[in-house]
Design goal:
nucleotide-binding; Carboh/pur_kinase_PfkB_CS; UDP-N-acetylmuramoyl-L-alanine:D-glutamate ligase; adenosine kinase activity; transferase; EC 2.7.1.20; about 20% strand; alpha/beta
Length: about 375
């Protein structure tokens, strides 16, 4: 088991060590199941649509929402009317996959828990997780079909409509509490759960978060969407005291600030105030990381704010921004699990996001070209 020492105490590599093969060095330090993720496994149904389609279902060009009754026909219409692609999705699962892709060896550093149906889409998700070398352990039930997410793309915007279905059926006592599953949780040293899972199983999140806090391990979470900050803020604030690393983008940060009465729209101030919220494990100071699309990434630490410019990209090279945020987190997690300095974690995050937005869905080439 890796040391539970706070990350800040890790010495930086000497110049001699830096010249060693990074992949060999990383492989020596890493073992399976060190990174744990839990969330909503969804099959993404992606298509380039038109404004009329967005208007028909009252969708904003760039948003994430849960499907309501008025969206039920949307999924069928999307498949009938447009050229669709299917990709294994779900925010947390995407991030764990990207982290595993960045790490490469050994396989199965990333573990993922979530709920699927006993159906064709569920089989696809199992197959895709195996191909990505992620150790996925799904709770399978036959009450609800595997969840789907319509990714409606217009230009470089994406509007996501999630029909959670099976993903909403995750049960702590039926899966997380099982001895063989909880052992996998205990093996991890870095945990990541997207805010979307707050709508599904708060008790599962709290069990994992409290374990991480008690053992001085890293618990990471994402604001995920404005609606989480608005309508699930009570759940979010129950978990906040356990969060060591909080991710979000500029629109989520703004929604969070408004709901928390921060009385500022300045993203750096919002990051500072989120960083200073009460925390249970005082051995670790919270880190807040906010992305802003093509603008600089903001990181709030206990005593300062740091900014990091993103990698430049020609707009014509952007294929699909769906998954950019998940990829950013995945890159960051790959650095955390290897105990890299925070600036290196951001560099890995920016690299991952830059790769993913050049491709359809949250997909990636065989190997990263990241040093």
């Amino acid at each position: 088991m890796a040391s539970d020492e706070p990350k800040a105490k890790k010495p930086k590599l000497s110049e001699d060590e830096k010249t060693e093969s990074p992949s060999k060095k990383a492989a020596a330090e890493l073992s399976s199941n060190l990174l744990f993720g839990m969330g909503n496994p969804l099959l993404d149904i992606c298509a380039v649509v038109d404004k009329d389609f967005l208007d028909k279902y009252s969708l904003k060009p760039n948003d994430q929402i849960l499907a309501e009754d008025k969206h039920k026909a949307l999924f069928d219409e999307l498949v009938k009317k447009f050229k669709v692609e299917y990709h294994a999705g779900g925010a947390t699962q995407n991030s764990i996959k990207i982290a595993q892709w960045m790490i490469q060896e050994p396989h199965k550093v990333g573990t993922f828990f979530g709920c699927i149906g006993k159906d064709k889409f569920g089989e696809i998700l199992k197959q895709k997780a195996a191909e990505a070398h992620v150790d996925a352990h799904y709770y399978e039930q036959d009450q609800e079909p595997t969840g789907t997410c319509a990714a409606c793309i217009t230009g470089d915007n994406r509007s996501l409509v999630a029909n959670l279905a099976a993903a909403n059926c995750y049960k702590k006592e039926k899966h997380l509490d099982l001895e063989e599953n909880w052992e996998l949780v205990e093996k991890a040293k870095v945990y990541y759960i997207a805010g979307f899972f707050l709508t599904v199983s708060l008790e599962s999140i709290l069990k994992v978060a409290k374990h991480a806090s008690e053992k001085n391990k890293l618990f990471c979470m994402n604001l995920s969407a404005p609606f989480i900050c608005q309508f699930f803020k009570d759940n979010l604030m129950q978990v906040m005291p356990y969060i060591d690393v909080l991710f979000g983008n500029e629109s989520e940060a703004a929604a969070f600030a408004k709901e928390q009465d921060f009385e500022t729209k300045d993203i750096k101030e919002i990051a500072k105030k989120a960083q200073a919220l009460p925390k249970v494990n005082t051995k670790r100071q919270r880190i807040v990381v906010f992305t802003q699309g093509k603008d600089e990434t903001i990181m709030a630490l206990s005593d300062k704010i740091e900014t990091f410019p993103v990698l430049k990209i020609d707009p014509k090279d952007i294929v699909d921004t769906n998954g950019a945020g998940d990829a950013f987190v995945g890159g960051f997690l790959s650095g955390l699990v290897q105990e890299k300095p925070l600036d290196q974690c951001v560099r890995a995050a920016h690299y991952s996001a830059n790769v993913i937005i050049r491709r359809a869905g949250c997909t990636f080439p065989e190997k990263p070209d990241f040093k």
